[in-house]
C-alpha cells in the first residue's frame, strides 16, 4: 500500500484482540525501519520501551484513564527521548561510526560532529525537550506508518499521567516520555474522523 493510501485509511483503533501476539522479530524489524526517520544531527535519541509484562500493563491501565487498548493491544510502547544523546561522547561516537563505515571522510566527520556539539551546547532544558519531542514524534509516526503497512492497527496516546507512568516503570529523568503507542489487531474499526479543508490549513508567506 502506498504511503498516501495508508494515511487515508489509517484510523486510531481503540479495541484489540487481546489474544493476538506480535513476534519480537516483527517488532524489531518495524523499529529498525522506524529508526531511519530523520532526526536532529543524527544523534538518535529515540528509545522504544516495549511493555509486554501483563502485570505492568494492568498497573498502567488506571493511570491511562482505563483506556482498554493499554491491556488489549498486542504491544504497548512508551516512546522516549534520551537526554544523554546530546552528550559529546554520543555525538562523536555516531560520527566516528559513519566514518568507519566509509560514508564520509575525516573532515566531514569532524565538521558534522562539531556542528552538532555546538548546536546543543547552549540549549536550555526546555529547548532540548523540544528537540527530543521533534525526533521522537517523527520516529513515532514512521513506526505507525510501518505498523499499518504490516497490517496492524495502532493508536497514539498522551492520555496518561506522565509522572505516575515514570514511577511505575522506574523511568529516570534521563528520559522524556513523549507518547504511548498501542499496536495490534483491531476488533472494531476506529471511528471516521474529519479533517479541515486543505485551504483552511495552508498559508502563504504570512499567518495571523
Ligand atoms: C499525541 C496524540 C495523543 C493522543 N492521545 C490519545 C489518547 O490518549 N486516547 C485516545 O483515545 N486517542 C488519542 N489520540 C488519538 C486522536 O484522538 C486521533 O488521532 C484523532 O482523533 C484523529 O483520529 P484518527 O487518528 O482516527 O484519524 C492521540 C493522538 C495523538 C497524535
UniProtKB/TrEMBL annotation:
Q: Which GO terms describe its molecular function?
A: oxidoreductase activity
Task: Tell me the protein family, please.
Answer: Belongs to the nitroreductase family.
Q: What is the lineage of its organism?
A: Bacteria, Bacillati, Bacillota, Bacilli, Bacillales
> What protein is this chain from?
Putative NAD(P)H nitroreductase YodC
Q: Which UniProt keywords apply?
A: Oxidoreductase
What organism does this protein naturally occur in? Lysinibacillus sphaericus
Going by the entry's taxonomy, the superkingdom of the source organism is recorded as Bacteria
EC main class here is oxidoreductase
Domain Nitroreductase: from-to ranges: 8-185
Any one Pfam family here would be Nitroreductase
Amino acid at each position: 500500500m502506498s504511503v498516501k493510501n495508508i494515511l487515508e485509511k489509517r484510523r486510531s483503533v481503540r479495541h484489540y484482540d487481546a489474544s493476538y501476539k506480535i513476534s519480537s522479530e516483527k517488532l524489531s524489524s518495524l523499529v529498525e525501519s522506524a529508526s531511519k526517520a530523520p532526526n536532529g544531527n543524527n544523534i538518535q535519541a529515540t528509545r522504544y520501551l516495549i511493555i509486554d509484562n501483563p502485570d505492568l500493563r494492568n498497573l498502567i491501565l488506571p493511570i491511562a484513564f482505563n483506556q482498554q487498548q493499554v491491556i488489549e493491544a498486542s504491544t504497548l510502547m512508551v516512546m522516549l527521548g534520551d537526554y544523554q544523546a546530546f552528550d559529546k561522547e554520543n555525538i562523536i561516537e555516531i560520527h566516528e561510526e559513519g566514518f568507519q563505515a566509509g560514508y564520509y571522510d575525516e573532515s566531514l566527520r569532524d565538521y558534522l560532529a562539531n556542528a552538532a556539539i555546538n548546536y546543543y551546547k547552549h540549549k536550555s532544558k526546555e529547548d532540548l525537550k523540544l528537540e527530543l519531542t521533534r525526533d521522537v514524534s517523527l520516529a513515532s509516526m514512521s513506526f505507525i506508518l510501518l505498523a499499518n503497512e504490516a497490517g496492524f492497527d495502532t493508536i497514539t496516546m498522551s492520555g496518561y499521567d506522565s509522572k505516575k507512568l515514570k514511577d511505575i516503570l522506574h523511568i529516570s529523568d534521563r528520559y522524556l516520555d513523549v507518547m504511548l503507542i498501542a499496536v495490534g489487531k483491531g476488533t472494531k474499526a476506529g471511528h471516521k474522523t474529519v479533517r479541515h479543508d486543505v485551504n483552511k490549513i495552508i498559508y502563504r508567506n504570512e499567518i495571523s
